[in-house]
Design goal:
The chain has one domain. By secondary structure, it is mainly β. About 5% of the residues lie in helices and about 50% in strands. The chain has an 11-stranded antiparallel beta sheet, with no helix packed on it.
């Protein structure tokens, strides 16, 4: 079983992750952000680090740096923003042990419509990561060279049904080269026909929330998140596999 890199190392009382966040306005045109993580109190890594434009015309925005790709809802969230101590299992299985996170350039456009519609595209340089938990696992991306980019498109729309109830819907698509290049694995454990193939990943996510605007009357809220992901690898067997996760959070 492949687990996420920020999953807790053991049961019981432990320090799952420490995160340090820094942000600053570089100049009137750019904002810089840096997020350093110490997972399970061992080592330090750059969770995210990027610059964002603040004054592009026609509602465009550009980000560049180490990014959590805008694929679905769970992948973009840092650990402290998660509602549970671990991410859904498909996140590590289909997106990688650290999710889909890599040096990238992202261009987004807030479409000038009467309702909220955000369209974004990304170019990511994903590196293959050895999967210790399951050395025969096939990574969706990271095959080839760092210049064999992974491409991603995402669409998000927000629908306020009433003052109490709203929905956020997202559609995602990503394509890149598969990777099963793991140095310490015996050659007999690796299926060569599953390495370096053009994979396609489809995703749909829905976030429903009910929360009365009058917090003096009640602090109760209800949030329901559902994500579906489908991976297609055109190999000899034309592998198609999918996953579904759903969670309900009730605040009382």
């Amino acid at each position: 079983m492949v687990t996420s890199g920020d999953d807790r190392a053991a049961t019981g009382l432990n320090l799952q992750e420490v995160e340090l966040a820094f942000s600053a306005a570089v100049d009137p045109c750019f904002r810089a952000e840096l997020y350093l993580a110490i997972p399970n109190a061992e080592g330090i890594e750059v969770e995210e680090g990027f610059v964002t434009t603040t004054s592009l015309p026609w509602s465009f925005q550009l980000r560049a740096g180490m990014l959590r790709a805008a694929f679905g809802r769970q992948n973009t969230q840092h650990l402290h923003a998660q509602d549970f101590t671990r991410r859904p299992q498909w996140n590590a299985l289909l997106l990688g042990p650290d999710g889909l996170r890599a040096p990238a350039v992202e261009l987004s456009w807030l479409v000038p419509l009467p309702f909220y519609l955000l369209i974004s595209g990304e170019m990511l340089s994903v590196a293959p990561v050895p999967v210790v938990d399951d050395p025969t696992a096939v990574q969706t991306f990271g095959g080839g060279k760092r210049t064999d980019f992974t491409w991603l498109a995402n669409l998000k729309t927000f629908v306020p049904f009433t003052d109490n109830t709203s929905a956020l819907l997202g559609l995602s698509f990503a394509t890149g080269l598969t990777s099963q290049q793991i140095d310490f694995v015996a050659p007999l454990l690796v299926e060569p026909d599953l390495d370096g193939l053009r994979s396609r990943l489809y995703g749909a996510d829905l976030y429903l929330k009910w929360k009365p605007p009058n917090v003096s009357a009640t602090f109760m809220s209800l949030a329901w998140t559902t994500e579906f992901v489908l991976r297609e690898i055109p190999s000899l067997d034309h592998r198609i596999e999918g996953a579904l996760s759903s969670q309900l959070v009730w605040q009382v």
